[in-house]
């Protein structure tokens, strides 16, 4: 599909204006290139458990397998049909390209849909829709929600932290923030079934189907450092600086 839409769709052939099949967030941050990788790794490996995806029973790296190589090969193939510069793209660049009709589709968070029908920032008002990620062995998505909270073991005042979480997790407040256009996604299930919210944002019903097959980050203290390292190797593979297998083996 991405290949089909990557072409000169203008009325003046050769004018240098090109339409691309997909927008990608391949910046070397795990929330970006790592999310693309995790989604595909889960789909091809057939598991939504982050510990099973990335580690074996002895907590040794296990992402450098056939599924990992397949995930990277698809990521590199998609890069052919994306605008120049996507290796440094984050959320804003990918979203804006989609809003300005420079790309046919993108993989992103539901907050993109909150502004897509706002004519002040989007040229695609009422000309877009959402769909779950394509299925591999299973259907999967990754990093599906843009807001989450935790109380660490060394928090100075756990009770105060809990009160702060309850304040922001208040149902009415979460609905208001979602409607505000601030780009924050609901962090509770209930808003995705709220009848009034769905009247204005009906696509959230489909988004919820993707969240149900979401792959969270592994819950372990080493996660930020481990995945920051992995992201650099993912970039090297997509850029062709390393083979897919070598990049994953070296990361492991």
From TrEMBL:
Note one Pfam family from the annotation.
Answer: SBP_bac_1
Question: SUPFAM superfamilies of this UniProt entry?
Answer: Periplasmic binding protein-like II
Protein name, as recorded: Extracellular solute-binding protein
Organism lineage reads as: unclassified sequences, metagenomes, ecological metagenomes
């Amino acid at each position: 599909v991405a290949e089909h839409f990557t072409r000169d769709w203008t009325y003046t052939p050769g004018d240098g204006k090109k339409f691309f099949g997909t927008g990608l967030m391949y910046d070397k941050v795990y929330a970006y290139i790592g999310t693309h990788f995790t989604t595909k790794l889960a789909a091809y490996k057939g598991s939504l458990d982050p510990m099973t995806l990335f580690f074996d029973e002895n907590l040794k790296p296990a992402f450098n397998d056939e599924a990992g190589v397949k995930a990277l090969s698809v990521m590199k193939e998609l890069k052919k049909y994306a605008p120049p510069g996507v290796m440094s793209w984050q959320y804003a660049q990918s979203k804006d390209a989609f809003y300005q009709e420079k790309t046919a589709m993108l993989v992103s968070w539901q907050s993109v849909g909150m502004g897509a029908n706002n004519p002040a920032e989007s040229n695609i008002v009422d000309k877009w829709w959402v769909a779950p990620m394509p299925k591999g062995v299973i259907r999967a998505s990754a990093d599906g929600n843009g807001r989450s909270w935790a109380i660490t073991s060394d928090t100075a005042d756990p009770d105060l932290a809990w009160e702060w979480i309850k304040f922001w997790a208040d149902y009415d407040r979460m609905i208001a923030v979602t409607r505000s256009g601030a780009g924050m996604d609901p962090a509770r299930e209930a808003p995705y079934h709220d009848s009034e919210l769905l009247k204005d944002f009906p696509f959230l019903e489909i988004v919820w189907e993707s969240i149900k097959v979401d792959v969270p980050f592994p819950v372990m203290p080493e996660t930020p450092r481990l995945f920051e390292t992995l992201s650099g190797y993912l970039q090297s593979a997509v850029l062709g600086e390393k083979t897919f297998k070598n990049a994953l083996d070296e990361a492991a």
